[in-house]
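Question: I have long wanted to understand how a fold can be written as tokens. Here is the record:
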Amino acid sequence: MPSSFFNYLVFLYIFAAYSLIGSGILEHLFIHMRTDPDTIYSARLFAILLGIPLLVLSKYMLLRCMAELLLKKVSIVFTIIYFSVAVVAFILYGIFVVRLTRFEIGEYQVLVAVQRWVFTGLMAGIYTTAFLISLFLSGKLVQHERSFARVFGLWYFLFMILTCSSFLLDEVHEVVPYIFVIIFLSWHLIPILFLNLYLEKYHGQTASVREDFEDLLTSFSEEFEISKREREVIQLICKGLSNQEISDALFISLQTVKDHIHRIFVKTGVKNRVQLTNLIRSR
């Protein structure tokens, strides 16, 4: 799984702990302290406001993760537009919160309703986009990689539907907000389990390569003019070693490993380790 997925989880869980769970605990404490309702509303609004950057970063990391699963990169133009819109939305929301809490201009119910629909729209837009990307841009991947990307996208599309439904219905019954939090926090553990099963099924042979691997690597090296040291690096890559592990195994610096891998990618025309191993296996 790309590192961006774990960055997504980190930002998302920090947002959940700070803005969702934290604001709920704060409200509970204020109620027991018999604080006036306006102060409670203000505290919750500011807690959510300060957590918005984390939410925005998490959604960006999810889109980046989906792009990496499809062996693509998120364009700089998209990144600039995404964060520009996010900054504008954050500033506008902040202005509304300050006007309401400091100057008592507006109504809490209106702002809470707007906040609910904006959050729902963000969730729907991001996760639907990720699902459509996985559906229509995975055609060039090999079968099992295409299936993994599509299941991943579908899983988060279902997450969006359940989360948005429970979020919009949180006033129907007092138990609904707890259902929302449980879904929000637990749903992401399943892709990690699915990833382990996927790796065992399709990449479990990396530590013990196939019997004719040496012959394949020899012909591969001759065809692409791979040096002896680069061949050793490729062999360790196919066994699933990280750059640091390759560095330790060959007694060379980490930067030297990166330089070797870059030259291998240039010679073979691949963009990442997965494409390199698939290129060798397809021979």
